[in-house]
Amino acid sequence: MARASDWIAAASSFIFLLFLFADAARTPEPSLRALATHGGKPNLVLPLVCSRSNSTRRSVLARRLLGEQVTARASMRLYDDYVTNGYYTAKLFIGTPPQEFALIVDSGSTVTYVPCSTCEQCGNHHQNLRFEPDLSSTYEPVKCNDDCTCDKEQKQCVYESQYTEMSSSSGVLGEDLISFGKESELKPQRAVFGCANSETGNLFNQHADGIIGLGRGELSIMDQLADKGVVTDSFSLCYGGMDVDGGAMVLGEITPPPDMVFSRSDPIRSPYYNIELEEIHVDGKLLHLDPRLFNSKDGTILDSGTTYAYLPEEAFMAFRDAILSNLHSLKRILGPDPNYSDICFSGAGSDVSELSKTFPVVDMVFGNGEKLSLSPENYLFRHSKVSGAYCLGVFQNEKDLTAILGGIIFRNTLVTYDRQNERIGFWKTNCSVLWERLHSDGGPTPGVLDFTNSRVNDSPTPVLPDLFESGVITFDMILNIAYAELLPHAKELEELIAHELQVDINQVNLINIASKGKSTMLRLAIFPAASSGFFSDTTVMDIVSFLSEHRVQLPENFGSYQYMVGMADNVVTGGNITRGFPPVYSPLDVARRIQAFGCTSS
């Protein structure tokens, strides 16, 4: 394979920006699946799947009766973010040797699928190459049988996943070894997955390669792992807060924190994960609503593949009015996209940790009387064009009476889908720090993440010192080369950056890539070595100095280039960088800012 220096000749220049634990304000995008419409555009839909309620219950009971002591779990880092991409992704590796894929984490779907090398109608802008069955020594097609739909030749099982906003994926079913990454203690497992020969709608256009299905059903990756007895029938998701990418996913058991709150989740009632939502309180005041509004056929649904929250009309109007009645000091403004009728406000300031002084707390009360409190970041998203402005991330479900709670509701919340005990738990925490705890030296006993007498961070919004010690440095690059030309060589670019910074290739990860006119914008992250767990401020200073002093040596084929090294305002002063590049700081400026926030070496 050609190295970066061989193919990048077309790049005459690039602009290099370093952000220390910062994230730009983002333009909201419709999520992968849209149920109802938001401003006349589809937003979120549930997949049309066949449900076998009785078989689901039998499967749950069978796993309980086995009484196996499962200790392994798959711990996986999450990438991307909801507001920019509309989803989070996890890296999955399929085959021998393993082929890498970035898959949307979706609790509302069952089939895990990746594009197949034979696909004639799959997107051209996916993050990784298509799956090559012939290159895997452990791949086997799922042969036609009485329990599946067969292809025309009656040789191989096929699948089709459809979504009501007209996206779809279809192809053949195969079985192969699936690996969960180096950071997972669970060994590779054989599992059935979809090898797509066709994608339509948003699935065709998205950057992610496919979907990892965590829903209820025989093809769900969770059902397959739990039925084998290699993990406990439970999984957990933890999404980063506003302005923080990524998070963590754990397939298998974690010991619930003492103050985790639970709601019952009935697998017979619905194929989707549901909770028993009874009441909503805004600023301590009950919204006088009929509880049956949240008690439709499927109950109130949780869907990790959904970006925002959608309420039935009466509930939405009451919620909206209650929020508006508490915001006398703010100015109502238009949303960032004229195609949407967003409810937005200016004048709140850019510091996320200060939003609770302006916006009210929202409480959700479950059928068992337990209460989950939501901070403003759980129902707001940043206005992408006005600094210090925010928009309501809760919308009216215009076509359905179902209440759907998407990922925005659970920012900085550990959500445990305890399928074995038919309940879902919620615990407010700092999801960025939680990931580091999962992999800290001398960490918890395998299979059990013990939170007893320990809270990761009382503040749901990460603070700068914690983030320095969590060891993530992100930086953006703008290359004067077309997206389609750069995409196949993204891995080579990671290798080049790792070589120049003298770090291991596994420490450099491309976490986002997007077309920007005739250029390509990339966001990369540098993680600490596995042995250290985090960067000291000295190491951070070394990296900043290395870049700011122009010591990176790129191949001549890159042409001329310039650096802009800085820290984004929303880390230091709460501003945003959506209208241009961040201010330029010298290494001394960065050192002063580190010192001011109390970061120390270890």
TrEMBL record:
UniProt cross-references to SUPFAM superfamilies, sorted A to Z: Acid proteases
One GO molecular-function entry: aspartic-type endopeptidase activity
Key words, A-Z: Aspartyl protease, Glycoprotein, Hydrolase, Protease, Signal
Active site: 106, 303
Gene Ontology annotations of biological process type: proteolysis
Signal peptide: 1-24
Domain Peptidase A1 per the UniProt entry, residue ranges: 88-427
InterPro entries: Aspartic_peptidase_A1, Aspartic_peptidase_AS, Pepsin-like_plant, PEPTIDASE_A1, Peptidase_aspartic_dom_sf, TAXi_C, TAXi_N
PANTHER family, alphabetized: ASPARTYL PROTEASES, OS07G0592200 PROTEIN
Family to which the UniProt record says this protein belongs: Belongs to the peptidase A1 family.
The protein, known as: (wild Malaysian banana) hypothetical protein
Organism listed in the record: Musa acuminata subsp. malaccensis
